[in-house]
Amino acid sequence: MKLKVITSALLFSTTLFGATAMADIRSQTVIEIPTQTIQLEQNWDKIFPKSDKVEHHKVTFKNRYGITLAADLYIPKDVIGKLPAVAVSGPFGAVKEQSSGLYAQTLAERGFITVAFDPSFTGESSGLPRNQASGDINTEDFSAAIDYLGSLDNVDQNRIGILGVCGWGGMALNAAAIDTRIKAVATSVMYDMSRVISKGYNDSMTKEQRLAMKQALNDSRWDDAKNGYATKNPRNNIPADQITDETPKFMADYSRFYTTERGFHIRAANSNPDGSWVLTMPLSFANMPLLSYANEISAATLIVAGEKAHSRYFSEDTFKAVGSQNKELVIVPDASHTDLYDNRTNKIPFDKFEQFFKDNLK
Asked: What are the extents of the domains in the chain?
């Protein structure tokens, strides 16, 4: 009986505190965090040709953590009135000049206002240390892109969707689970970064291996604290000319995309030969799982995976977990993971993405 009284008192005091705090917040003066000034590259430096069917603008906007994000805005030419819009990002370790920009520009050619953005800490976006990642902050990046798109006069706020490629597929779904403004969410060859980092590929990490990983990551923090800066991992992908018969196919595919003319970009963590992600990047993903509330996703959901992609199981398992009654899983025949990074093999199902967003952003 005493325990029940204590519990009731705690619940009452917590509720009272929450109500009082909300009232205080509403009465306080809001302190504005200014958008940072970033020197953006104005020359066309994408891995894909510039389209003559869309207008292109470099833009910036900030997320609720005060980090300024750099983005490419694509607007269909000769279109009048308010349009549906789509925010795009990914793959994990890539920049907007690579796959996300291709997806964004192609969707803009098909009638959508789109924005491809560099996530916090990467590319031209702000945030220190460089080449860091966070499931929470990067999920917020998608919501910040929604904020930005919804502020445009030519965007219908009730017709906004998002699309995530690779690791940002998981972030996109995580955003859709919390942000009710998202009316449609699509993924392409998605990864669940928290799952792969905490459990290894195909959930193969043993308890002993996980403990060793945590020890190594946390031991590296001593060096960071001593040096005053975050230590970077060495290059993320081996040069294509160092691929051997022993190299796992998916790693060879990554290298052939990120380290060659096909997909190389100097600002991408996955391309940069001088170092990729900071060494402690996996910590938050290893301890705080994404997609815990996938069952709460109510937005229309399209999950696209390659038939031969090593990542296919992420898409299939996540599809089962998504709660939306309007969801579809598409397996692209004979496609590997990186086949859907660019359209070199004409395997990206752009017609499917277009129809999905047209059907669900109307």
From this structure: 54-192+291-360, 200-282
